[in-house]
Amino acid sequence: MNMLIDGELVTSDKNFDVLNPAFEEVLGTAPECTRVQLDSAIDAAEIAFCSWRKNIDLRRNVLLKCAKTMRANAEDLARLLTQEQGKPLAKAMREIGEATRWFEYTAGLSIPKETIEVQGQETVEVRRRPLGVVAAITPWNYPVMSAVCKIAPALLAGNTIVLKPSPFTPLTTLKLGELLKDTIPRGVLNFVSGGNALGEWMTNHPAVRKISFTGSIATGKSVAMAAASDLKRLTLELGGNDPAIVLPDADPKDIAHKLFSGAFENSGQVCVAIKRIYVHENIYNQTIDELVSIAQGIKLGDGLDENTDLGPVNNRQQFERVQELIEDAQQKGGKIATGGQRHGNKGYFIEPTIVTNLPDDSRLVAEEQFGPALPILAYRKLDEVIERANSGMFGLAASIWSPDKKRATQISQELDCGLVWINQHLNIAPQVPLGGLKWSGIGVENGYWGLYEFTELQVVEVAQS
User: Fold this and answer.
1) Mean pLDDT score of the chain, rounded to an integer?
2) pTM
3) Spatial separation of the C-alpha atoms in residues 252 and 271, rounded to whole Å
4) For the purposes of burial, counting CB atoms within 10 Å of the CB of 12, is it exposed (0-12), middle (13-18) or buried (19 or more)?
5) How far apart are CA 371 and CA 271, in angstroms?
6) Distance of alpha carbon 31 from alpha carbon 89, whole angstroms
7) Average pLDDT in the 124-153 region?
8) Catalytic sites, residue numbers
9) What CATH homologous superfamily does 242-429 map to?
């Protein structure tokens, strides 16, 4: 694979291996971007910004052409995505399809101007202007979707971009760059690949005016500190420890499959996936039985096998972390209702794991696991469960489950998070903003709100006389 810098496909003297997590075998290599190459990419983005910012109709057309190119190459992109990320091919196709839809939706947005009359003495025009060069850094769980969620609004707003994918999943993103090479003007969109050092160079570069980062809280804090030195604008979509609250009037049989998919989608590697379920004590055992039954029928395997339901954890570091959390849960007195073991002897597979009887201070409850291990916790009173759900410094998403939608909606106002679903989970749409409270992030993505994150206000006042 090659990087895309100033409209040219570029390699490097040094490469790094990318593994297929289902087999722990080398799938391919990606270039290790040098500091000189990064400077070239940012210089190209600066130069391209001067003309790119001027014509929104051109920008709309380019986004639509990007969507067309992705759609024409969807199968090849999805297959490569499955091999480097691990998710089943059908899920990879869905990710490519959703990313394509994000391009199309964003192309239809407008950037309005507002005119204000001030006491009959002057006219005030409020505009939204692009920021300049955007540094975008994306994660390994949804590499293509995360990239397009940043690329599309940033470009429509008139910015230019240098984007770095995760070193665990760079190949599909770099392939996308190769496909879009002749669609996007030179320098407007640049793809570079590498490890942590490259990310640090990007966030510290003086020409970068905006950083859009999706990843861990620890890295997000480092990005924020780097941005502070010259007041770069920030969007940080960080981790979550997202609770689901099952009210006593819910029917476990009716909601179990939705709860399970909300927790184990992409093998639990979703920032807004259910990370802990609070179930009223009256239906606690029945809910566990339903979820265990589903988990025991799940097939783990290579994502290219059409019979696979769940793929592996993406990388060894995360694989070992999830195992560590399961071991800690057992040491804290947790009961493994199902799963808890590595699946097979090759690949980063962990059985879908459900843990009961855990204290709230156990790591599997208090931390973000980002993998296929789920604690189920009993509660008695509503006030109690709201306090427990709000505990800690996470505040990304949550869900409430009850046939009484009005009551559930009222309860949602008491949850400290950016997004609350009622009787569903993981329903993400390009029109709907997504952002976190507390340590779960700064700013939002998606919709007009996400588009405006890539702009700044300018006010022009014109005297009447």
Assistant:
1) 97
2) 0.96
3) 24
4) middle
5) 10
6) 26
7) 97
8) 237, 271
9) Aldehyde Dehydrogenase; Chain A, domain 2 (3.40.309.10)
